[in-house]
Design brief:
single chain; about 290 residues; mainly alpha; two-stranded antiparallel ribbon; transmembrane helix; ABC_transp_permease; BCAA_transport_permease; Branched-chain amino acid ABC transporter permease
């Protein structure tokens, strides 16, 4: 049982890392918490569900479409609201209120469109090829999720550390004003980062029906809370620290589900409090500067 809990926690940890990655990227660039993050994950989940249930489109194909769609929506949302927020006297507080409103609007519209019932998808949509490690069997969807998450994490790493735009993004994370003074178009860089953040939410959403067991229109708030816990455990403002946070969160959750199931829902958040008391900046410490 211990081996199953640790391996299963690591596998789920990659999904959790992907779940929080977009939220952490947006926070790193804008220093704002997107309270609608979980609702965009929910929309990505319903996008995969509708595509499969109506046209039998594999979720892996849906992911490609959602990357483009969510990226465009993210950039449009940025240009529509964020520059105005940044000009206000208290952009952080106003962003919380505004994104909370966006979250509630998405949830209400999704409920009108999809109803309130929980929806599930066939777990064998990726085939029936379970992964066997140390005699323990893990569902096909789990290791497919690991592969998709690993590719997304690797591409984000290459973007941040191997591209000119990525270096500009890291500069904005370090100091927005200094970056603007150096001649970099901060709004353009931030809009692209916001679009990438929502695209990552869409990718996580397409995997959510298989990893969380079902989807429903009011799940966004819970996903946002979980994502925030994950990024704080790793390092708030450090997108790559989300990997550590996701794995720690996943292993802690699986261990508690195996040995103390009645406490499993609370355990990761107790872990969060302990980490904040010991290392207030998260496991990787301060991660806002990348230059």
């Amino acid at each position: 049982m211990l081996a199953y809990s640790i391996i299963g926690g690591i596998l789920f940890g990659f999904f959790y890392a992907l779940l929080g990655l977009g939220l952490n990227l947006v926070f790193g660039v804008l220093k704002m918490v997107n309270l609608a993050h979980g609702d965009f994950v929910m929309l990505g989940a319903y996008g995969a569900y509708v595509a499969y249930s109506t046209s039998h489109i594999n979720p892996l194909i849906t992911i490609l479409a959602e990357i483009v769609a969510f990226g465009i929506v993210g950039m449009a949302l940025y240009y529509g609201i964020v520059p105005r927020l940044l000009k206000s006297q208290d952009p952080e507080m106003l962003s919380l209120i505004l994104f909370f409103g966006v979250s509630q609007a998405i949830e209400a519209l999704a409920t009108l469109a999809f109803g309130q019932n929980t929806q599930t998808m066939n777990p064998n949509v990726f085939g029936n090829h379970p992964l066997v490690i140390f005699g323990q069997q893990f569902e096909t969807a789990w290791w497919v999720s690991v592969l998709v998450s690993a590719v997304a994490l690797a591409l984000l790493y290459l973007f941040l550390y191997r591209s000119k735009l990525g270096r500009a993004t890291r500069a904005v994370m370090g100091n927005r004003e200094e970056t603007a003074a150096s001649g970099i178009n901060v709004n353009r860089v931030s809009a692209i980062a916001f679009g990438i953040g929502l695209a990552l939410a869409g990718i996580a959403g397409a995997l959510t029906p298989f990893m969380l067991g079902g989807i429903y229109t009011t799940m966004g708030v819970g996903i946002t809370v979980t994502s925030f816990a994950i990024i704080v455990i790793g390092a708030l403002g450090n997108p790559l620290g989300t990997i550590i946070g996701g794995v720690v969160y996943g292993v802690a959750q699986f261990l508690m589900q195996s040995y103390l199931p009645s406490w499993s829902a609370m355990a990761p958040f107790v872990l969060l409090l302990i980490i904040l008391l010991v290392r207030p900046g998260g496991i990787l410490g301060k991660g806002a500067r990348y230059a």
